[in-house]
Specification:
Residues 3-167 form the NadR/Ttd14 AAA domain. InterPro entries: NadR/Ttd14_AAA_dom, P-loop_NTPase. This protein is α/β, with parallel strands linked by helices. It is built from seven helices and five strands. It has one domain (2-176): P-loop containing nucleotide triphosphate hydrolases (Rossmann fold), CATH 3.40.50. β4, α6 and β5 (155-159) form a beta-alpha-beta unit.
């Protein structure tokens, strides 16, 4: 099983791209943070992200979804625990034990492919119930994601702002064309990034 991550700034079109890949028959896994926030808001917790436990809750749902059975040879994930590491850093939360354990697990088990699709921003960021940041803040968030993935030893494949069909074509070409050497297992990562 080859598991690929889509990451990038909030509002960059990751979810739209993920749904387009699903329509083409690929196995996909939705973003965990959006669901964690929606569950909390449904019971009256307006700003769950202010709590340090927030990132552990995301990591737990990411683990649950990643471990769910999948019969297809390729699976796309809207974010990974490395994104959750970037989120903890962005929010100024210490790295909690659950997230640290999940990061250790995915690195040791080489759960995700070493090539990560970095979905570039569209030049704006529309707020939603789960996404309450400005475009300037989203660019800082984007930078921290780049840093986290590089620190964990991943290679980023740029997916520029473009129509969805072009983005899908780029991703499918990258996973199916011999010209882009995507090794079957991730390389050994750098030392665990400090936090």
């Amino acid at each position: 099983m080859r598991r690929f991550v889509l990451t990038g700034t909030p509002g960059a079109g990751k979810t739209t791209l993920l749904h387009a890949l699903a329509e083409r028959g690929h196995a996909v896994v939705e973003e965990a943070a959006t669901e964690v926030i929606a569950r909390a808001q449904a019971v009256g917790v307006a700003e769950l992200w202010t709590r340090p436990s927030f990132v552990d809750e995301i990591a737990a749902l990411q683990r649950e979804r990643q471990l769910a059975p999948c019969e297809r040879p390729v699976q796309f994930f809207d974010r990974s625990p490395v994104c959750t590491h970037a989120l903890a850093d962005y929010l100024g939360h210490p790295l909690p034990p659950g997230l640290r354990a999940e990061l250790d697990r995915i690195v040791a088990a080489k759960v995700y492919q070493p090539t990560v699709f970095f979905i570039r921003n569209l030049g704006f960021c529309e707020p939603t119930a789960a996404r309450r940041i400005s475009f300037a803040e989203s660019l800082e968030f984007e930078r921290r994601h780049e840093e986290s993935y590089r620190a964990f030893g991943f290679t980023l494949v740029e997916v520029p702002a473009a129509p969805v069909a072009e983005r899908v074509a780029l991703v499918e070409a990258a996973i199916g064309t011999p010209g882009l050497a995507i090794p079957p297992n991730p390389p050994e990562p750098a030392a665990f990034p400090p936090r």
